[in-house]
Specification:
72 residues; mainly alpha; 4 helices; globular
């Protein structure tokens, strides 16, 4: 049950932490932990950074696939 929950959550969080971890060369779990700690320490401002990065990665995916964003 816990493995199912973990894989479902990891698929639905846009892959921002995995992308950042790959770029920095660290483990994904460590990046997620830092996001959580920073969110508590700064009253949620890293959540805005996370959402902007998720939006940017989504746009980047559409541009690479050659789709028209307005028609999808």
């Amino acid at each position: 049950m816990m493995d199912f929950f973990k894989t479902t959550v990891e698929r639905s969080v846009f892959g921002v932490c995995s992308y950042l971890a790959d770029k920095m060369g660290v483990r994904t779990a460590r990046v997620r932990l830092y996001f959580i700690y920073l969110s508590f320490a700064t009253l949620g401002s890293p959540i805005l950074i996370y959402l902007v990065t998720a939006f940017w990665l989504n746009i980047k995916k559409y541009i690479r696939s050659g789709r028209n964003l307005l028609l999808d």
